[in-house]
Design brief:
- The chain is α+β, with helices and mostly antiparallel strands and 468 residues long.
- Among the domains are: 214 residues, FAD/NAD(P)-binding domain (3-Layer(bba) Sandwich), CATH 3.50.50; 93 residues, Alpha-Beta Plaits.
- Strands 5, 6, 14, 15, 16, 17, 18 and 19 form an 8-stranded mixed sheet that branches.
- The longest helix is centred in the last third of the chain and has 24 residues.
């Protein structure tokens, strides 16, 4: 890598995963050069890498995130689908047992993109790096920020092989290094105050395994999701979901909170799946071919840094993605929020102008909006698990949860309310749509159709999966 000739027109993005690549794309419109600094040496194609262990678990892009990615990389959805990713309509191609019962498969309201994380990252990375203004500096460790409490001027880096430390000067530094971010430590080292931080950790553990679907079920099979009992029962929350991904495979992720963790070994994986509130996922994978061992992780808690609330903020520094707010992965919102935040980054820079005074603070405050929406969705349920948060749920938490529970029950038998709920969960609209007079009245009335007594799989789907 050659040193940039004009550091003031250079952007440095820390982290070369999903968030970092989209941030780099957002900034390429304004900077003469964008340098992405990544600790790993990234693979050429959709292959595993050391610094992304969560890639072995299920991932999805909700339609709110898909729209954001398309804004930054027009045509990328087509590239993903050409590579094998699947577009699944919500809730048409979803078989979901919520706490309140089975959802009907209503006509399409939104959609998700389903693919393995390696494929998602590799496709987006290739699109971003095709832009000659974006350069990848792989195998490089980030050591800290250069500058003062008033302005960041660059970042200190060192080759992963232990080479000489050097400084990359920049007019803007974006931290997209994920859950392991050192941003709060870096800022206090520059003389800034400690940032307010909140954690809501239900103690969720994840176990995932990849399967080859039965031959007849390798194309067009629905998503299957068996959710937990409502939080607050005092029992561990156990759940699971099966996502059809590329190459006729199913990725199955089993989840459990404290005291109900899923197994770490293959022998008990099927037993746990069959022991969920409904045995459907276990019945399906019993007829599928395991392709991998079980991948297990506990790093799933919700954690948010309220950087936007700091009394002072340095010029030329922004924090995005999991480095800003990390969510319980069970809700599938992390990648979508990251994409929406990258769009916000581009919009604020476009509106204010590169290098404008106070630009970074405006970006940090603006990205708090999409982050806050997903945060409220996640902690609204997780805070009820024992030990999840200091002090437990507040009165507001309890009132909101009771109303959302009633809405979800109504949505099992009311397609219009199901659409309003998915408006919010897909990150297409804010939660305020759930407070309109018509939605409030519908929640009081309850579902218009009776609760389903069995999974809403068609006879053809049951036959193709070997269940009939």
């Amino acid at each position: 890598m050659t040193e940039p000739s004009n550091p003031a027109r250079t952007a440095v993005v820390l982290g070369g995963s999903h968030t970092g690549m989209l941030a780099a794309r957002a900034l390429a419109e304004f900077a003469d050069r964008v340098v992405v600094v990544e600790r790993d040496v990234l693979p050429e194609g959709p292959e595993p890498r050391k610094g992304l262990p969560q890639a072995r678990h299920a991932h999805m892009l909700w339609s709110g995130g898909v729209r954001a990615v398309e804004e930054l990389l027009p045509g990328v959805t087509g590239a993903l689908r050409d590579a094998g990713a699947r577009r699944a309509p919500v809730t048409t191609d979803m078989v979901v047992m919520a706490s309140q019962g089975w959802f009907r498969r209503w006509s399409e309201s939104h959609h998700v993109i389903l693919a393995g994380r390696d494929l998602l990252d590799a496709t987006i990375r290739a699109e971003v790096l095709a832009d000659g203004r974006v350069e990848l500096l792989g195998g490089t460790e980030v050591l800290g920020l250069e500058g003062t409490a008033r302005a960041v001027t660059g970042v200190r880096v060192r080759p992963g092989d232990g080479g000489r430390e050097r400084v990359l000067a920049a007019g803007l530094v974006v931290d997209a290094t994920g859950r392991g971010s050192g941003a709060s430590r870096w800022l206090t080292a520059l003389g800034l105050p400690e940032v307010e931080r909140r954690e809501v950790d239900p103690g969720l553990a994840y176990a995932s395994r990849l399967f080859l679907a039965p031959e007849a079920a390798r194309d067009g099979f629905p998503v299957v999701n068996v959710q937990t009992d409502p939080p607050g029962t005092g029992r561990p929350g156990r759940s699971g979901f099966l996502l059809p991904v590329e190459d006729g495979r199913w990725i199955v992720t089993l989840c459990g909170t404290r005291g109900g963790e899923p197994p770490t070994g293959a022998d008990d994986f099927l037993r746990f799946a069959r022991g969920l509130r409904h045995p459907l996922i276990g019945e399906l994978i019993e007829r599928a071919e395991p392709l991998t061992d079980v991948s297990f992780t506990r790093t799933t808690g919700n954690r948010r840094h309220f950087y936007e609330r700091l009394s002072a903020w340095p010029e030329n520094f922004v924090v995005l993605g999991d480095a800003l707010a990390a969510f319980n992965p069970v809700y599938g919102h992390g990648m979508s929020v990251a994409a929406q935040s990258a769009v916000v980054l581009r919009e604020v820079v476009r509106r204010q102008g590169w290098g404008a005074p106070g630009l970074s603070r405006r970006v940090q405050r603006a990205v708090a909006r999409p982050v806050g929406a997903a945060w409220d969705l996640a902690i609204g349920q997780d805070v009820f698990y024992p030990g999840a948060a200091e002090g437990g749920p507040t009165l507001r938490d309890r009132l909101v949860a009771a109303y959302v529970g009633r809405l979800m029950y109504t949505a099992t038998g009311n397609g219009r309310i199901a659409r309003r709920v998915t408006d919010v969960t897909s990150l297409e609209r804010g939660a305020e749509v759930l407070l309109s007079p018509s939605v409030l009245l519908a929640a009081v009335a309850g579902p218009l159709k009776p609760t389903l007594s069995a999974p809403p799989l068609t006879g053809d789907e049951l036959k193709r999966a070997g269940l009939r």
